[in-house]
Each structure stands twice: as C-alpha cells, then as structure tokens.
Amino acid sequence: SQQGEEDPQALSIQEGENATMNCSYKTSINNLQWYRQNSGRGLVHLILIRSNEREKHSGRLRVTLDTSKKSSSLLITASRAADTASYFCATVTNTGTASKLTFGTGTRLQVTL
Amino acid sequence: DGGITQSPKYLFRKEGQNVTLSCEQNLNHDAMYWYRQDPGQGLRLIYYSQIVNDFQKGDIAEGYSVSREKKESFPLTVTSAQKNPTAFYLCASSPTGGDTGELFFGEGSRLTVL
Predict the structure, then answer these.
(1) Integer Cα distance of B61 and B34 in angstroms
(2) For B100, which DSSP code?
(3) CB atoms < 10 A from the CB of A58, how many?
(4) Which of residues 66-85 of B touch A (CB under 8 A)?
(5) Hey, how many other C-beta atoms are within 10 angstroms of the C-beta on A98?
(6) Phi first, then psi: what are they for A82, rounded to 5°?
(7) Residue A60 contacts B where some CB pair is shorter than 8 Å
(8) Which residues of chain A have a CB within 8 Å of the CB of B103?
(9) What secondary structure letter does DSSP report for B52?
(10) What is the mean pLDDT of residues B59-84?
(11) Which SS3 state, helix, strand or coil, does residue A82 take?
C-alpha cells in the first residue's frame, strides 16, 4: 500500500531557483526519509527526520515535518542541473532488525540551464 | 568498497518462464529487501528478510519467491504465476540494529516480458 503521496508529480525549474516538494502520509511514523533516484538507477538516501523533529538541514537540503498534518516538505535551494532526478519520501513505522519503508509516488524534478 | 550488486541489469523473458534476479551485498547487513517499481507508482515491497533462513511477504508477494541461504545473498525468482512481471526491480539492505531504517539500494534490474 502507498503511505505517501507527493506533490507535485512533476516540477520544472531553472538553475538557481529553489525547488519544493511535499509529501503527505496517513499513519503515525517513527521517521520520514527522502531519497533521490536518477533515471534508471537505484535510490540514494538524502536525509532523515524523526517524528520528534520539526526541521532538518543538510547542505542545500531542508526538510520539515508537521506530524499534526501528517506532511513533510523537501526544499532544494539554489538548484543545479545535476539535481534533475525523481525524489521520493518514505515513512518508517517501526525500526529494528528490519524496517519496512513505505514509499510515496515521487516527484520528478527537471532543472534546466 | 562496500555496496549492493544486482544482476543482470536488463533481462528479457518469454511468457511462462521463471527468472531469477541476483542481489549480493558486502555491507554486513542482516536485513534485505526486494521492491518493485512501476512508472508513476513508486516502490512496492515484495519480500524482505531479517536474518538468514527467514523471510516475510511484503505487499505484493504473489507470483514471486525468495531464498536467504547466506547473509550476503537474497535472490528473487519471478515465477510464471506473476501476471504482469515487466517492471524495474530494486534490492536493498539495512544496517543491523539501526534505529532509522535507512535503506541502501542496488542499481536495479529491468525485466521485460516478451
């Protein structure tokens, strides 16, 4: 089942602009993660935010989490052509030896020169 | 250097044939996973394994089978019972005892049924 829904499905911006992607989910979570996927490749972990955190930064990435609204956003500042990829949110409802992540449908980001 | 290796990268199959996708990791992770990705649908969990000789069904296990005879290896067989097997298959692993559930992915295998 799909836990997360992402918005927008596709986003096209120019280099240097900021890109914002949103993710909504349905159930209580332990943490929420964002992954990046280049076309035809595997996913790469970008950043994680725990349920008791509201904002987190990593380089040009900023993630926010609103557990009352069951939503998260990923902001990429000063975008570059190399940021062109699909971005997925994934929620974790339990951790341990094996944690089942539930992925959203993704946002396709196109950054043009 | 450590990572997850999936093979083959591209695979073509005739209807009615079983195919096996390989996944090997040298990250010393206990947990391993198989996901299926279709266009516009994100990733869906097929099977996962927490430890050698143990595995559980995910959300879409019908038509698939797995084995976990070694810690490093978690092969996925797509059987003829899978009615729509054309997809991109991703293998992942996660660290033992981690409290985040972060996944490490292979580069994927694209299966096309002719």
Answers:
(1) 10
(2) S
(3) 11
(4) none
(5) 22
(6) -70, -10
(7) no
(8) 35, 43, 45, 90, 101
(9) T
(10) 95
(11) helix
- Characterize B14-45 residue by residue with b for buried, 16 or more Cβ atoms within 10 angstroms of its Cβ, and e for exposed: eeeeebebebbbeeebbbbbbbbbeeeebbbb
User: Nearest CA of chain B to the CA of A58: how many Å?
Assistant: 16
Q: In this structure, are residues A51 and A30 in contact, taking their beta carbons and an 8 Å threshold?
A: yes
**Which of these, A36, A31, A29, lies nearest to A76 by C-alpha position?**
A36
Residue labelled with tokens 């069951």: A70
Q: Please, which residues bridge with residue A24 across strands?
A: A5, A71
Q: What is the pLDDT of residues B32-65, one digit of tens each?
A: 999 999 987 789 999 999 899 999 999 999 999 9
Gap from A41 CA to chain B (nearest CA, Å): 5
**pLDDT beyond 90 at B101:** no
| Number of neighbours of residue A29 by Cβ within 10 angstroms | 23
